[in-house]
Amino acid sequence: MAFGLNRAELIGRLGADVTVNQLASGGRVANLSVATDESYVDRNGGTGGRVDRTEWHRIVTFQDGLIDMLQKHATKGRLVYVAGKLQTRRWKKDGEDSDRFSTEILLVPGGRVQFLDRSNGNGPTIEAAANSMPPADSGDTPELTF
């Protein structure tokens, strides 16, 4: 029996509005681009200056209820918490012999999306879990469960 844990969590800003595409199978897929920032002091560069670095993450979900919520609330610049699992896809581009790879965070049952800011300056945060169990109670924060 094999055991493992595949979980990814991040807090960052949306780099663009959510994009939703229709699949040939009739379902939908939502894609998000989230930027996380970090800074450190460059001790090896000789200057000792502060270095800022941005890492971009692809977020994907096929969960219909979650896609509906993202279409309403996932807009560029919003601060978001995402919890899902890592997935690497492999494909070939037409005319190329080598494989291409993309690693993304997949929102599956047990995953979570929570907007940590207030989109209009006075509204509550929005939280959604990509499963059928209600998220943990967080006071007066409205919750969407799937």
Descriptive overview:
The protein is mainly beta and 146 residues long. The protein has a single domain (8-38, 50-145), classed as Nucleic acid-binding proteins (OB fold (Dihydrolipoamide Acetyltransferase, E2P)), CATH 2.40.50. It has one helix at 64-73; strands at residues 8-14, 19-22, 28-41, 50-61, 79-92, 99-107, 112-115, 127-129, 143-145. The chain has a 5-stranded mixed beta barrel with strand order 1-3-4-6-5. Mean pLDDT is 83; it is low at 132-146.
SSE layout and pairings?
Elements: E1 8-14, E2 19-22, E3 28-41, E4 50-61, H1 64-73, E5 79-92, E6 99-107, E7 112-115, E8 127-129, E9 143-145
Parallel strand pairs: 4-6, 8-9
Antiparallel strand pairs: 1-3, 1-5, 2-3, 3-4, 5-6, 5-7, 7-8
Structural classification: mainly beta
Q: What percent of residues adopt helix (DSSP H or I)? A: under 10%
CATH architecture: Beta Barrel
Please identify the top-level CATH class: Mainly Beta
Overall structural domain count: 1
What gross morphology would you assign? globular
Radius of gyration: 18 Å
CATH topology type: OB fold (Dihydrolipoamide Acetyltransferase, E2P)
The overall average pLDDT, rounded, is 83
Order of helices and strands: EEEEHEEEEE
Number of strands: 9
Q: Biggest sheet, open or closed, and with what strands and sense?
A: 5 strands, mixed, barrel
Ends: how far apart? 30 Å
Q: What's the CATH H-level homologous superfamily?
A: Nucleic acid-binding proteins
- Strand arrangement across the biggest beta sheet: 1-3-4-6-5
Helical segment count: 1
Classify the beta-strand content into a percent band. over 45%
Low-confidence stretches: 132-146
